[in-house]
From TrEMBL:
Pfam family name, one: rve_3
Protein name: IS481 family transposase
InterPro entries: Homeodomain-like_sf, Integrase_cat-core, IS481-like_transpos, RNaseH-like_sf, RNaseH_sf
Listed PROSITE patterns: INTEGRASE
Gene3D superfamilies, A to Z: Ribonuclease H-like superfamily/Ribonuclease H (3.30.420.10)
UniProt GO BP: DNA integration
Species name: Microbacterium sorbitolivorans
Length: 333
């Protein structure tokens, strides 16, 4: 691989060889800004190997005593293509066959073979594993919790209101340098997996005590809509959800945490966060945090009682609750 500062490319080496046919190597080397040894190297390679000698050679050593045998690499490819096993499973099976190899080594060879992604094995997806949906059987079967962290809006508006580089934005930046940081607002949300009924509050932090208090208020709010029992609570692995205090206030509900770095396992609340961001947080320019907090309360009513939802064929989430609350007036808009 030719780096960006290389004075010679394959075409430049060919021109070097042509010039050295009738002129001294030292003169041509000085003219092209390279050493005589380098020019002599390419001329000798051309005389010995022809055009192939002008190509870049691999920097790998000729002899590699600790290299993985070719038979092992072939086994890795067969296991991946035929059984579609991940690197960890392939390494486990090889170790069981008395082949010493690490998972990282298997991963590296899968990348070299072009098999590191599942879609590379079956581009049409014919033999891929079937997608398993997370389905809540009835209201209260699954309630998903999550926290969305967003920047606090300074009074008068931030750079979104006046533009970057404006005098107002610079004034806000100067207050930050003096120690008066704007900080963040934490949007705690709970959504019922069956009805998609959602409850959101803007709170000061994401500590365990805050998450516990929010869960109690969310449970009361769901009760008002006919969801009197929560059977399962789904969260990520945030510190507030892993605390012992949080486990003590579940009231008999099963607590399931998603696999680390796998937000799709809590996809309903993640999708709700995206809707919240698109339709409220980034939908307009806010001039203060109080203004946005007030709009959040209004938007919660709109989402639950008036906004059409695809899971209910265009009806709002409140229409699927046991209480069937669907007659809320739109006078709040």
């Amino acid at each position: 691989m030719v780096h960006r500062n290389a004075p010679l490319t394959p075409e430049g080496r060919r021109r070097l060889v042509e010039r050295c046919r009738t002129r001294p190597i030292a003169h041509v080397a000085a003219e092209m800004g390279i050493s005589r040894a380098t020019a002599s190297k390419w001329v000798n390679r051309y005389r010995r190997f022809g055009e192939l000698g002008l190509r870049d050679r691999s920097s790998a050593p000729i002899r590699q005593p600790t290299a993985t045998p070719g038979e092992t690499v072939a086994k890795i490819e067969i296991m991946r293509r035929e059984r579609k096993w991940p690197a960890a499973r392939i390494a486990f099976e090889l170790v069981a066959d008395d082949v010493t190899i690490s998972r990282r080594t298997v991963t590296r060879y899968l990348d070299q073979l072009g098999l590191n992604r599942r879609r590379f094995i079956d581009p049409d997806g014919e033999n891929n594993r079937e997608v398993r949906k997370i389905v809540a059987k009835h209201p209260g079967h699954m309630v998903h919790l999550d926290v969305k962290k967003t920047g606090r809006i300074p009074d008068g508006g931030g750079w979104r209101a006046f533009g970057r580089g404006s005098s107002e934005a610079k004034a806000v930046a100067r207050t930050k340098t003096r120690g008066a940081r704007a900080g963040y607002i934490y949007l705690h949300s709970a959504i019922d997996g069956h009805t998609r009924l959602a409850y959101t509050e803007a709170l000061e932090n994401e500590q365990a005590s805050t998450a516990i208090a929010f869960l109690e208020r969310a449970r009361d709010w769901f009760t008002q809509h006919g969801i009197v029992k929560i059977e399962r609570i789904i969260t990520d692995n945030g510190s507030c959800y892993r605390s012992r205090a949080f486990a003590e206030v579940l009231n008999g509900a099963e607590h399931r945490r998603t696999k680390p770095y796998t937000p799709k396992h809590n996809g309903k609340i993640e999708r709700y966060n995206r809707i919240l961001s698109e339709e409220l947080l980034c939908a307009r320019t806010w001039t203060s945090e109080a203004q946005r907090a007030s709009a959040l309360t209004t938007w919660n009513l709109h989402y639950n009682y008036h906004r059409p939802h695809g899971a209910h064929r265009g009806k709002p989430p409140a229409s699927a609750t046991p209480a069937c609350v669907n007659n809320v007036l739109a006078s709040y808009i």
